[in-house]
Write a structure and sequence with these properties.
By secondary structure, the protein is of the alpha+beta class. The protein contains 14 helices and 23 strands. The protein has two domains: about 210 residues, Alpha-beta prism (UDP-n-acetylglucosamine1-carboxyvinyl-transferase, Chain), CATH 3.65.10; about 210 residues, UDP-n-acetylglucosamine1-carboxyvinyl-transferase, Chain (Alpha-beta prism), CATH 3.65.10.
Length: about 425
């Protein structure tokens, strides 16, 4: 367990540089089992979730070597088939090893870990595996070679645009040199990153970034070197930090094209995003109309669920009332009772909606971080609050934000991490 002690109320100023996208790195680590000729990844964030995924890859026989900021993978001809229960239960991304292992026959369904933000079943995965011809029996899945390599096109129609189910479908489809069509696919930037790496390996992919993906795979994967893109969720969180600092925190962004929806969302709060070279900040913009303003989340390219928590903190510092509708996870909004302890005015209407009235003057107190994204929201709130705040269970931040203490120091935050 860890405590993050923050002395808030200090003027923040500096540059925040987001690390690599963990949600792109995790499926690529699992996909290393497919790259017999080798895979090299750069810009992989050194966080708890990637470290556990690397340990799982090693436990399956993958050779993992670090060299000057890159990670090189060498996959065995016959990987181990049993996923470690101890390791898989520590990270939600362990479900991504199912597809590359299933290519070799039978795999046990892992006991996945991750944030407790709601019910997260894998029914969509199982339906997708069955569409490829797999058989599910109890806790095991079996896919015969004759089913995987059948010449007729495989049509996958996902019951929901699940990110990890789409990634598993991409990996399975990449291993069969025949046509696969994936409908209702997720289209987040990290899906595109995985797809680009598969393209380098010799897989034909069209429709990345849309809900309709068509693929023709390959039996032999070429050697690939791939750079993980920046984490747009971390950048979005840092933009909120910029907003509450009056624009004094600048965020380095490599590919602004992926951020237009996020940039536009700040208008609801009377803010605007301004640019100076590669640096972006959030300052006061045109006044918004009176009345309750709403923010809903939906699958990408709509507003992402992972940024709802930090936007609630921003709303607590803006004039007016804001209704947040969290459609995807029924437990994500429960952290708002922690914001109320800081002095925010947040009403939990039901598990999926909160009403925020601002602005509120926040004061330091003792808090508990329930998950990664709520943890970052509490950090931002504690930086605003006058006095000292103690955030317990703050080791959660290490699962999603690389070098958090160094980055807080770069923006002049007064924070100390204590490990108990």
């Amino acid at each position: 367990m860890a405590q993050l002690i923050i002395n808030g109320g200090r003027k923040l100023k500096g540059i925040w540089r987001p690390s690599g996208n963990k949600n792109e790195a995790l499926p690529l680590i699992a996909a290393s089992l497919l790259f017999r000729k080798g895979l090299t990844l750069t810009n992989v964030p050194d966080i708890e979730d990637t470290r556990v995924m690397l340990d799982i890859a090693r436990s399956l026989g993958v050779r993992v070597r670090r060299n000057n900021g890159s990670i090189r993978f060498s996959s065995p001809k016959k990987p181990m088939r049993e996923l470690s229960l101890e390791l898989s239960s520590r990270v939600r991304g362990s479900v991504l090893f199912i597809a590359p292992l299933l290519i070799n026959g039978t795999v046990n369904i892992p006991a996945t870990g991750g944030d407790r933000i709601g019910i997260r079943p894998i029914d969509t995965h199982l339906e997708m595996f069955k569409a490829f011809g797999a058989k599910v029996s109890g806790s095991s899945i079996t896919l015969k070679k004759k089913e995987l390599y059948r010449r007729s096109p495989v049509l996958i129609w996902l019951s929901e645009p699940s990110v990890t189910a789409t990634e598993n479908a991409l990996m399975l489809a990449s291993a069969r040199p025949f046509k696969t069509i994936i409908k209702n696919a997720a289209c987040e930037p990290h899906i595109i990153g995985l797809g680009r790496a598969l393209e380098q390996a010799g897989v034909t992919v069209t429709g990345l970034g849309t809900n309709l993906i068509e693929m023709t795979g390959t039996r032999i994967f070429k050697r690939v070197s791939h750079r993980v893109s920046e984490d747009f969720m971390e950048a979005g969180s840092a933009l909120v930090m910029s907003a509450v600092s009056g624009g004094a925190v600048k965020v380095a962004i490599e590919d602004p094209a992926e951020y237009q929806l996020i940039f536009n969302t700040f208008r609801k709060f009377g803010k605007k995003v301004v640019r100076s070279g590669e640096l972006y900040s959030v300052v006061d913009g045109p006044k918004t109309k009176d009345g309750i303003r709403t923010l809903n989340d939906d699958p990408w390219p709509n507003f992402p669920s992972d940024l709802m928590s930090v936007m609630i903190v921003l709303a607590s510092q803006c004039s007016g009332q804001f209704l947040f509708h969290e459609k995807m996870f029924e437990s994500r909004l429960y952290f708002t009772d922690q914001l109320n302890m800081l002095g925010a005015q947040v009403v939990l209407c039901d598990p999926h909606r909160v009403l925020v009235t601002g602005p509120s003057r926040l004061h330091g107190t003792t808090l508990v971080s329930p998950d990664i994204r709520a943890g970052m929201a509490l950090v931002i709130a504690a930086l605003i609050a006058r006095g000292q705040s103690v955030i317990n269970n703050s080791q959660q931040l290490d699962r999603g934000y690389e070098g958090i203490m160094k980055k807080l120091k770069a923006v002049r935050a007064r924070a100390v991490l204590q490990v108990q």
